[in-house]
Amino acid sequence: MNYIYDILINWNKELFDFYEWNLNDDISHIRKIPIFKVSSDVLLEMVTCDFCASSEFLSKIYNKTEMFTNKNMRQIEYASLFSDGEEVIAIHFSSTGASTYKSKLLIDEANEVTEVVIRMPEVKIDYNIIKENPHVLKTRKELRIEKYLKKELENLKKDYAFDKLKYLYYECFGEKEANKEQMIGRLKKSLKEDWHHMYVKMYDFFKLASSHR
Q1: Digit-coded pLDDT (tens) for 46-74
Q2: Which long-range contacts (CB under 8 A, 24 or more apart) does 186-192 make?
Q3: How remote is the C-alpha of 149 from its chain's centroid?
Q4: CA nearest 125: which of 56, 40, 49, 50?
Q5: Residue 128 forms beta bridges with which residues?
Q6: 107-144: per-residue pLDDT in tens?
Q7: Residue 42 has what DSSP assignment?
Q8: 55 versus 178: which is more confidently predicted?
């Protein structure tokens, strides 16, 4: 088995690029961790989906990862790196094989890993996809904005906010509509399907509205 030594990993439910790491994140100093080379298609699924690895794979990586602690070091039961020779992702698994936490690497450490992976043979990893993760391509800031917008859209369901809802709907679509449920439904759908175009309009609207309260 191949290992990578002395790297930092930022375990999170969401996958953040290194420039979005915060000081209060759960950043672990890893002494060693196993690395597997996979195809680009497999790596993409691992990045964009929640999945469950087989018990056979878990047995291969059991207690193979070690991290430094204040006193000495300790083992992480189920964790490993995956790479296609271009990108790298670290994944922490539960005892049942579910991919619970993920992390990208610092850019210089990721580059060192890919240099090692180029010389490695590609392996097949047995896993089953649990669900796709629609948030994976959003930045940390965008995830905060998404949470904020969902809350504000829910508030527009209240009767006193009907005029505000009609105004937002017209700002987004240039159309008038009288049905509250249809308006909110279309706003939510557009936010899901055309995020990069719609979230700026909605965010600016709500922030401007809040400044006039």
Answers
A1: 998 999 999 999 999 999 999 999 888 99
A2: 187/153, 188/150, 188/153, 191/146, 191/149, 191/153, 192/134
A3: 19
A4: 56
A5: 52
A6: 999 999 999 999 999 999 999 999 887 655 677 778 78
A7: H
A8: 55
Predicted structure pTM score: 0.69
Its sign, for the CA torsion 59, 93, 1, 31, is negative
Distance CA 206, CA 141 (A): 16
CB 132, CB 54: distance < 8 Å: no
How is residue 125 written in tokens? 């990893």
- Give the position of tokens 């991290």: 67
Helix 162-173 × helix 195-211 angle, to 10°: 140
CA gyration radius for the chain?
Answer: 22
The CA-based diameter of the chain, rounded to the nearest angstrom, is 65
Banded model confidence at residue 96, pLDDT cuts 50, 70, 90: very high
Q: Token pair 């450490």 is at which residue?
A: 109
Provide the b/e sequence for 168-194 (b: ≥16 CB within 10 Å): bbeebeeeeeeebeebbebbeebbeee
- β-pairing, 65-68 with 26-37? antiparallel
Distance CA 25, CA 10 (A): 7
Alpha-carbon distance values, 4 to 64, 149, 162 (Å) = 11, 41, 57
Which structure tokens are listed for 140? 């940390």
